[in-house]
Amino acid sequence: MKSSCLHYHFETIGSTNTWAKENVDQIDPEGVTLISASEQTLGRGRFKRRWQSPINLNIYATFCFYIDSNRSDFGHLPQLLALAAIQVLEDLNFHPALKWPNDILLNGKKVAGILCETMMLEQKRYMINGIGLNVNMPTELLNKIDRPATSLFKERGHEFDLNILLKQLDVKFTSYLSHFLKHGFDAFFPSFQLRSTFKQGQFIQFNHNQTLLEGIFESLHPDGSVQIKLLDGTSKKFYSGEFMFEDFI
Q1: Which of 17, 82, 135, 240 lies 20 to 30 Å from 117 when distance is taken between CA atoms?
Q2: Domain BPL/LPL catalytic: where (predicted)?
């Protein structure tokens, strides 16, 4: 895959992910369909949080495609999109970090988030991989976000071409996806591990099912899970949850 087979762009939309779910009949059944927007009025992230989506400032995009319903490794797809976005940023000489499971940080502040959703349609799994990347968002708007956030503009001091960045992300993700569908996530895991914000032995706070846990970060696993040694001495593996921002600012 060189880039998405279909690309729908909207000036204003509720949410690119929502459009992808409500317009399945317009999605390419064989390749990747990209949905993008200049503005989202109902943008959302993980845990149903609102994603600030002002017009003509950032990238709001969703990559849609079908995979075999028997594949058990589809949970890696948001991480794959995160790695593609990280590579695009590294090509611009940024130094992003990955906050498990798939948030992207610059200088300890969130610059991009990913929301992956899935639906079973007939005998295939329909994947909806959404990303919001703060590109030209100014400080006054970033300050309205309830968590530490940044943008490429704030970090570098000049604006970036949204169309060029989106094209680069499209090409990178579809290339990664093609390799993943043939060979799995193993080839990507070292890169995922290397860019992780947390290092072995680091004290962390972790929100799991609305419960705040504290402990020591032990490792990431190739299956996408994280190993944490809790304060009571038990070592547990988690497939979902959220590291608290205060740990690494």
Answers
A1: 135
A2: 1-181
**Phi, psi of 99, rounded to the nearest 5 degrees:** -95, 115
Structure tokens at 126: 């329909």
**H-type helices in 68-121, by residue range?**
77-91
The closest of 58, 117, 89, 46 to 195, measured between CA atoms, is: 89
* Residue 140 vs residues 143, 150, 151, 164: alpha-carbon distances, Å: 5, 11, 11, 25
Residues of 74-96 as b/e, b for ≥16 C-beta within 10 angstroms?
Answer: ebbbbbbbbbbbbbbbeeeebeb
When pLDDT is averaged across residues 164-176 and rounded to a whole number, the result is: 97
Contact in structure between 169 and 177 (CB atoms under 8 Å) = no
Give the model's pLDDT for residue 48. Answer: 54
As a whole number of angstroms, the distance between CA 64 and CA 68 comes to 14
Is residue 85 within 8 A of residue 184, CB to CB? The reply is no
Report the pLDDT value the prediction gives residue 241, as an integer from 0 to 100.
85
Domains of the chain: 6-194 (3.30.930.10), 198-243 (2.30.30.100)
Summarised one tens digit per residue, pLDDT across range 197-225 is: 888 899 989 888 888 999 999 999 998 88
3-state helix, strand, coil in the chain (%, to 5): 30, 35, 35
Can you tell me the mean pLDDT for 31-47? 82
Amino acid at 220: L
Pairing, β 124-133 against β 109-121 = antiparallel
**Vertex 138: Cα angle to 135 and 140 (nearest 5):** 145
Positive or negative: CA dihedral 163, 14, 26, 176: positive
